[in-house]
Amino acid sequence: MTSYLLRGVSLLGAELRDVAIVDGRISDNAPADAEIIDAAGLVALPGLVDLHTHLREPGREDAETVETGSRSAALGGYTAVFAMANTSPVADTAGVVEQVWRLGREAGLVDVQPIGAVTVGLAGKQLAELGAMATSAANVRIFSDDGHCVADPRLMRRALEYVKAFDGIIAQHAEEPRLTEGAQMHEGEVSTRLGLTGWPAVAEEAIIARDVLLAEHVGSRLHVCHVSTAGSVEVLRQAKARGVRVTAEVTPHHLLLTDELAASYDPVYKVNPPLRTASDVEALRAALVEGVIDIVATDHAPHAVEDKECEWAYARPGMVGLETALPVVLSVLGERWDLIAERMSRTPARIAGLTGHGTDLAVGEPANLTLVDPSARRVVDPSELASRSRNTPYAGTTLPGRIVATFLRGEPTVLDGKAVK
Amino acid sequence: MAQPRADASSKIILSASDLHRVVDRIAHQILEKTSGATGTVLLGIPTRGVPLAERLAARIHAFEGIDIPVGSLDITLYRDDLRLHATRALGKTELPGGGIDGRRVVLVDDVLYSGRTVRAALDALNDEGRPSSVQLAVLVDRGHRQLPIRADYVGKNIPTSLAESVRVSLTEIDGLDEVKLTGGEDQ
Amino acid sequence: MIKHLRSAADLDAPTATLILDTAGEMAALAGREVKKLPTLRGRTVVNLFYEDSTRTRISFEAAAKRLSADVINFSAKGSSVSKGESLKDTALTLQAMGADAVVIRHPASGAPHRLAAWVDGSVVNAGDGTHEHPTQALLDAYTMRSRLGRLDGLRVAIVGDVLHSRVARSNVLLLTTLGAQVTLVGPPTLIPVDIAAALSPATKVSYDLDSVLPDMDVVMMLRVQTERMQDSYFPSAREYSRRYGLDLARMRKMPEHAIVMHPGPMNRGMEITPEVADSSRSTIVEQVANGVSARMAVLYLLLGGKA
Fold first, then answer.
1. Which residue, A293, B95, C41, C257, has most beta carbons within 10 Å?
2. CA A392 to chain centre
3. Contact A265 C110 (CB under 8 A)
4. Residue B26 to chain C, least CA–CA distance (Å)
5. Which residues share a beta bridge with B180?
6. What is the pLDDT of residue A14?
7. Do C257 and C279 lie in a common domain?
8. Chains A and C are in contact, defined as 3 or more C-beta pairs closer than 8 angstroms
9. Which of B127, B48, B119, B120 has the alpha carbon at shortest distance from B95?
10. Is the pLDDT of residue B8 over 70?
11. What are the chain C neighbours of A313 within 8 Å (beta carbons)?
12. B7 pLDDT band (50/70/90 cuts)?
């Protein structure tokens, strides 16, 4: 196994030093034959961990595969991604989650950790075999019906309780379905002007409010996917103050983009939950800094061209995000590297109970890390994405930061900004 | 087309008093050639043909005490050069009471040039009704016809080059009466 | 001149006034024996209708034909559209056919905006989802101006299901641009959120029709579909028409000169009683006739010059 010496790297933006990688781990001295990487001007971060990725395999391999999604993740600085369960067939059995997990191992670009469905077929009627998925080779700990809300309160309560047996966690897509029938975008001034059916903020906030009370009642862990409104932040703040075991994520796009973009009727801006208002964006940014929102998760949602080059109402919601997540967060938070490591690596790994990721680059730890050039600027070109899909909302936007290299257990997956395989 | 230059390259062809005399003369000629303007209707082509037609009617009234019907005929929708320019706003079409069927129509315009405006006017007239005959009165004929059209009444013939342009000003629209020839010196 | 008419917001006051003036000239020409004009000879207008709307399609067809354009009707029924061809593929087909203008009626809001990105010709919105119907607003404004002599300062109530109404959105935008004062009236469930901020800050909202009527020059009734009851927008057709329907007693509360409008098709007995619809104050039949003139004006102004 090749050893590496990262010369003159800045750990989390602080001290400049040399970092050696030997036998897949951080070492205090490099052997003489170590390959030297000039890391002057580069910042080392622990490999990023994404708790919310759609890899589309099995079922929609035309939009993404485990392999192309893994490559996209590695190029974005990730060393682990959690694959959502809304595939076809749905990842609601040990068989499907093991298949996804195995495909991830074969691709070997990031650790692909499957998320199991909470209910059979994401139908919200009956619990899936959560225990079987937990004890499978995929070792599933996060369960989510993402794309659908577990709306039935009794079912949600049971799910929260049931996964305590194996320290699982339910990741809720908070959307009261009766309040969002036919919804196309954030309900407000812009939806009124555009004549698009509104997705009211209260549909998210009501479910989060209910779920934190349920989690509190049964003493379980709850994770809230893609928080998008200022009101949700307030609900979470109060719950956390009371000691409820709730964690929450925000997507890069909800930290940067607003509902005004829908005015073009270009469905590249259609996403669920929808882009909100500027004051929501402001509240989400503050909550992320403060820690009311624990992590950034991409909700990377690749879609085939025909599912986006159409009328807004007929388009599928979602945006690709793995390759632009860190640049977007950099543009929002600035070069607060320790905060970025906390929100994009350490905390997500901790929520998921994922060992070997999200650890700082101390001697003896697995060498899961990424090197970033913070001075670089990049104009996003959809045709250059490694993802099989092109539905990025940032086409033509200049974003700061370039991921120069990513290492997964000491093996480079990205070098010179290019995927190694 | 040559760029119209400043006043240095323009000259006055008809002064206000010239213009009034010319209108008077056309009015007399119309009376002569239409047996006292019986069964005759004047139709001005917007924009400047309309006040000219009204002046002719006023002069005819002054000379003979006859009230000759006056109207306007917009030809925009019949132009053959619509695609060569930005969309034009429409002018008014207002036919006098009693219409034009069986009457002698005298079309009135300020400048006769290629003849295309008159061609469009004849088409428009054809859709409005069936006059017994159609005549044409113009203040200025500057030549360069592109169609087999000639005027029955001409205020003044002005030989021009293609690079020049004729500017007719009328008090009703422009605040003064005169006809100017501009441009063309660089040709 | 503008290239497309996707929204009434595409029109500033001078352009909107020019269209109404042009519509006036077109209406004058409609009175003569020969109605056809040679103006758009050689130009191709495609009516691309993804929804059944015979009245709107016929109105556009008559407008285009009176201007001598070649008209192609492309209806969603019995065409490749029902076999799942995408709007983009259809757009490329129309492009290849050399369409100078595409008139589109579509159930999805914003479809004309998408189409405009895929064709070189002009796009005219003939109604998109619950978004807009700008030519309806133009013919309504034309009708108001013909009847009442002006638009500036006119007080207009738009009554009913504003939430789902493309007619209401276009009318608010256009009438406000032309200086009218619009009041939206309906049950709170059918008035969209932030409507004034969304369309025009001067827009007023009222939930009480009776208190509004004495101050209006124009009362425009919107079609209310009884299906809205299933979604709890209001309890019953009877309660709706009692609170927001226009009957003779309510019409008497309006000033003498005030007119009653309806974009059609009417739900007689629901939002409007037959006696009101057929009264001399009603402009409903005029609106249909004015539709052709207004659409001729739009087609002339979009297509009558250099592309």
1. A293
2. 15
3. yes
4. 31
5. B12, B167
6. 87
7. yes
8. yes
9. B127
10. no
11. 107-110, 129
12. low
pLDDT at A280 over 50: yes
Residue ranges making up the domain that contains C201? 134-283
- CA A235, distance to chain mean position in Å, is 22
Least CB–CB distance from B84: residue in C37, C302, C306? C306
Q: Check: CB of residue A266 under 8 Å from CB of residue A292.
A: no
C279 and C196 housed in the same domain = yes
Residue B174 has pLDDT above 60, yes or no: yes
Which chain C residue is nearest to residue A263, measuring alpha carbons?
A: C110
List all residues 6 or more positions away from C138 whose beta carbon is below 8 Å from its beta carbon: C8, C16, C19, C20, C23, C174, C294, C297, C298
Reference C222, options C281, C137, C286; nearest CA is C137
Q: Judge whether A373 counts as a catalytic residue.
A: no
How close A19 comes to chain C (CA, Å)? Answer: 52
Rg (chain A; Cα; Å): 20
Query: Domains of chain A by range and CATH?
Result: 46-359 (3.20.20.140)
Report the number of distinct structural domains present in chain C.
2
Q: Do C1 and B85 touch (CB under 8 A)?
A: no
Contact: B127, C37; criterion CB under 8 Å: yes
Q: Is C1 on the interface with B (CB under 8 A)?
A: yes
Q: Are strands C218-221 and C155-159 parallel, antiparallel or unpaired?
A: parallel
Cα–Cα distance for residue pair C172/C110, rounded to 1 Å: 18
Read off the CATH number of the domain in which C51 is found: 3.40.50.1370
How do residues C206-220 score in pLDDT, each as one tens digit?
Answer: 999 999 999 999 999
Give C39 to chain A, closest Cα distance, Å: 33
Average pLDDT over residues A296-313: 96
CATH for the stretch B10-182: 3.40.50.2020
- CB pair distance less than 8 Å for C113 and A188: no
With cut-offs at 50, 70 and 90, classify the pLDDT of residue C227.
confident
CA gap B115, B121 in Å, rounded? 10
